[in-house]
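Below sits the subject:
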Amino acid sequence: MNKGGIAKMSEYYELSFQITVKIQKTSGNEDIPLPRYMTPGSSGMDLFASVTEPFCIQPKEFGVVPVGIRISLPDGYEAQIRPRSGLAARYGIGLLNSPGTIDSDYRGEIKVVLLNFGSQPYTIRRGDRIAQMVISRVIKADLDEDDGLDATQRGEGGFGHTG
């Protein structure tokens, strides 16, 4: 509690918590590290390429890269596959569908769709860190079709509307 005797929100609610995610390496990938947080404050776990031989992605092209794992998420969660900022800044490597979504009922091998936005070919080797995986809660919505939506200041202003 602070001086006035009022509790901070963080005293009532945990700011972060952990869940258990079951994970399985796919056949032939026993040498590939499991995803891991690289620092105590990391939001995402790094994913490692499980290619069997070096794989080159030419400029302005994409490739699907396996990471050698399958996961089982609890209901109400998803795994978001996101780009690594270092690969983007240094080499122009990003994800074609970012973030990629791994649903709680998917049990296949996770694969990452990398895109080379850069001007030079980029080679991925076995064990390279290629993306990160963030586990997130999912909120499902009930849709209520209605003829009249509430008016807002923005209205129908779309792309570039605010400058």
Remarks:
- Residues 29-137 form a domain with the Deoxyuridine 5'-Triphosphate Nucleotidohydrolase; Chain A fold (CATH 2.70.40.10).
- Helices lie at 9-12, 85-91.
- The mean pLDDT is 91.
